[in-house]
Specification:
Elements: E1 5-8, H1 18-22, E2 27-31, E3 37-41, H2 52-61, E4 67-70, H3 72-77
Antiparallel strand pairs: 1-4, 2-3
Bound molecules: iron/sulfur cluster.
Length: about 80
Amino acid sequence: MPTPTIRVIPSKCLGCGTCVATFPEIFELYDDGSGGMVVRIKSDADLSKLTPEDYERIKTICPSMAIEVVDEEAADAQ
Ligand code: SF4
């Protein structure tokens, strides 16, 4: 089974911190220079440790749908 890829869309992020509080090993808030905090995936995030249940939770955790979980095979087909 391929490992899904996680993408964050910074322009949709509200900076609420929910994803960071739930998965601090994956997400971090940073100052993007526009006066607000937005989320990015940590440079040392180890996605291989996430379970299928984690991915399902990540898919729905963001209130503004700023986080996408993309199946790598589907992404390659685009
Ligand atoms: S849950 Fe969504 S809106 Fe909140 S910090 Fe994470 S990416 Fe941003």
